[in-house]
Write a structure and sequence with these properties.
Elements: E1 7-11, H1 17-32, E2 35-42, H2 45-48, H3 58-76, E3 85-89, H4 92-102, E4 107-113, H5 125-132, E5 136-142
Parallel strand pairs: 1-2, 1-4, 2-3, 4-5
Helix pairs in contact: 4-5
Length: 148
């Protein structure tokens, strides 16, 4: 088995930090001649509101989905092919693991807000991804405060 990565998944939250995370993944993909996929996960609206709202949230979810796809394209183009840009609905760590397993991803790149102490990362998406991943995970430190 070679040490090269063949398929890299970049998981982003669509904030300004997403560009830094993608940049790091692009460097690795370039060195390894790897395929690059980028993904953003939207939590389902019914989940966010406890499912108690007596209305159809489908059109709102569709609008959020369309908006997320445009934001992801703004970040990913021209570096990631449109067919490798994915917006999915679900819980981020679960969906990242599912995609990685189904698409033979061998490196997942996520952002990690470098707060002090590992305890502060518990419960974050990057920690959830790390704990369930069957492949390597690179946590790119982003959003650092200027006093650190």
């Amino acid at each position: 088995m070679s040490n090269e990565y063949r398929h890299i998944l970049v998981a982003v939250d669509l904030t300004k930090d997403s560009h830094s995370i993608l940049e790091r993944a692009l460097q690795i993909a370039d060195r390894n001649h790897a395929r690059l996929s980028i993904m953003h996960t939207l939590e389902p609206l019914g989940f966010a509101y406890g499912g108690d709202i007596p209305m159809d949230l489908t059109s709102i979810q569709d609008q959020l989905d369309d908006h997320a796809k445009k934001r992801l394209a703004d970040i990913a183009n021209p570096h990631v092919a449109p067919e490798d840009q994915h917006v999915v609905v679900g819980m981020p760590d679960t969906e990242i693991h599912r995609f990685a397993d189904e698409q033979d991803v061998d490196l997942i790149v996520v952002g990690s807000h470098g707060r002090h102490g590992f305890a502060l990362l518990l419960g974050s998406t990057s920690t959830g991804v790390l704990h369930g991943a069957k492949c390597d995970v690179l946590a790119v430190r982003v959003g650092m405060d200027s006093d650190e």
